[in-house]
Design goal:
The chain is built from ten helices and no strands. By secondary structure, it is mostly helical. It has one domain: Hypothetical protein af1432 (Orthogonal Bundle). The protein is globular, with a radius of gyration of 16 Å. It starts with a helix and ends with a helix.
């Protein structure tokens, strides 16, 4: 078995190149997208230290790859070939289905995530923890409130996934309320 650092290096290089090929940046910033992937992975690493029976290597790979099908030209087959089918299935579950109405996409993705291991649930929680930052300037109040509501939906649906990450997400949602206040 490859050591964790080698797994991380292989996976982040693969993901960073795919996202950079799309010139993808973190929305509302000029930061390369790999910063977001690193932040999600950091949440996973900390959570794994607080969680019994947690497949850290698998979760780290899924965290680094979680947006690769949705945001790049990478295919399910390519992920299966480069990593394995379990990782590709996890990334596919974390990928919103663009062929269904926008308002149904999160629920659909969460349903697919719930059929997989708690590590996959944890990556979804870590992703939203990382995303609940200062909202991009171009977002209106309605979009900001909808994003917070969606975060609550994620937290509710994936309850029991990972106590550490659930607590972190709950705190982030609370904190995010300041952006939803119209009197500010």
């Amino acid at each position: 078995m490859m050591e964790l650092q080698a797994i991380y290096q292989k996976t982040i290089k693969f993901a960073a190149k795919k996202h950079a090929d799309q010139n993808q940046v973190i929305p509302g910033t000029n930061l390369p997208y790999v910063v977001h992937l690193g932040n999600v992975t950091m949440e996973i690493i900390f959570a794994s230290q607080e969680t019994k029976e947690f497949n850290q290597a698998f979760a780290i790979q899924v965290a680094l790859l979680h947006d690769i099908i949705e945001d790049t030209k990478t295919t399910f087959e390519e992920l299966t070939e480069e990593f394995d089918e379990e990782i590709a299935q996890a990334v596919l579950a974390l990928t919103k289905n663009a062929t269904i109405p926008k308002e149904e996409r999160m629920a659909d993705s969460l349903t697919r995530i719930k059929k997989l291991s708690k590590e996959v649930w944890s990556v979804k929680l870590a992703d939203r923890i990382t995303n609940l930052q200062v909202p991009p300037e171009h977002w209106n109040l309605e979009k900001i409130k909808a994003y917070q509501k969606e975060a609550l939906q994620i937290l509710e649906t994936l309850k029991g996934a990972n106590e550490y990450l659930e607590k972190r997400l709950s705190e982030r949602i609370q904190n995010y309320s300041k952006y939803c206040d119209t009197t500010a």
